[in-house]
Predict the structure.
Amino acid sequence: MQIDILTLFPQMFQGPFSTGIFQRAIDHKLVSVNIHNIRDYTSDKHHTVDDYAYGGGAGMILKPEPIFEAVESIKSDIYREKGGGELPIILLTPQGRLFSQQIALELSRYSHLILICGRYEGVDERIREHLVTDEISIGDYVLSGGELAAMVVVDAVVRLLPGVLGSEASTLDDSHSNGLLEYPQYTRPAVYRGWSVPEVLLSGNHAQIARWRREQAIIRTLERRPELLDKANLNLEERRLVNRLSTSPTLPPSDEIH
Ligand code: 9D3
């Protein structure tokens, strides 16, 4: 997969893509990430990327020309090298559809992505109307720009590409793939400061361990993210457990949330 990112702050992308599974994915040529400075696509002598809003108001708006120039230049490089095919042009914006594992999976199926990071108070609406094919937000909080959001999207997408993760098993076991939050996990020592690891995990009884983990995952999901249970695949016995727990006056105490 090839990912092109348009930004006014290319330096922000230095860290994440030269670390860990990214670096490995890039080294193994499973993905290539190209960072483009929007300012390089200006043609006026002051390299202007933004301007005042028509109609007034605080803050600056990203001008259309550099963004169109950048996207069209990247597009023609892609067509020249690899030919046609659907090419998502994604604007990171607080007004976009809420990013999810489902959307990450959807995006992982394309051979190319173009991501545009917004800044300032917004982008000229014509970019949305006539260039962008998709708009994504990563959640309801205010960031200073789309850069961190783009990194979140790229991270979630790249780890789904074939060959990127060491073991495919860990993708399948991911909390957001089975629809439940993760069960509690422990490592040595068996007793730390008097706090013991649950006995069942030391029993060597794998069927019992699997049952305990599944039950813990369900309890934790019910406590913290009950809305996830609607879409989780629970069997009859598990549905009964949920009913029993949610109709009992109080949930069992959790050690970890305060
Ligand atoms: C003046 C009103 N602001 C909306 C609350 C405008 C505004 C805020 C923040 C315009 C741009 C930004 C910068 N944020 C993003 O570009 C962004 C973002 C975010 O702030 N939260 C979650 N996801 C994203 S994706 C891009």
Residues 172-256 form a domain with the Trp Operon Repressor; Chain A fold (CATH 1.10.1270.20). The chain has two domains: 2-166, 172-256. Residues 92-94, 118, 121-122, 137-139, 141-146, 149 surround 9D3 (CB under 6 Å). The first strand starts at residue 2 and ends at 7.
